[in-house]
Request: fold
Amino acid sequence: MVTLQIEQSKKYSRLINILAIVIPLVVAVLLGIRQKVDLGDWTTYLPHINAVINSVTAILLLMGLYFIKQKNRAAHRTTMLTAFALGFIFLLSYVLYHLSNESTPFGGQGWIRPVYYFLLISHISLSIVVVWFVLRAVYFALSGQIAKHKATVKWAYPIWLYVSITGVVVYWLIAPYYNH
Reply:
């Protein structure tokens, strides 16, 4: 029984490692495609929807922390799995937008320009890193490995919260420059 559990754990660990590499690579490749796919004008609304998704995710993360501090595991589980599902929806929406629309250049000048790029670069970099942590945190929680879950969440939670909040801030900074 123990051997089976170790083998299963290694299998999931390998899958998480592969996904944590493949997801950012696929996103990077899709973003690098110069020929945009015409999916319709509806895709121009996706950045606005993504900002809402990031906002709700940040709120859910804060609620999840609150619930676990209150020892309300059921509410914690629901909010965190909802945040995870929203992350998946965000990823699909983000890819669809960039697959079908040119990137919007930031038009701000002065002190706001380096602030914007700092937030954008840190947001993107940490969004790549957080995939591995979040996948592990979810796996450990769902498989009942609570000690490993807690150890992973020490890193995953603040990074994920930062990515969610900076996603909204970056959106508000670039929103005036969208052509739609």
Q: What stands out?
A: The radius of gyration is 18 Å.
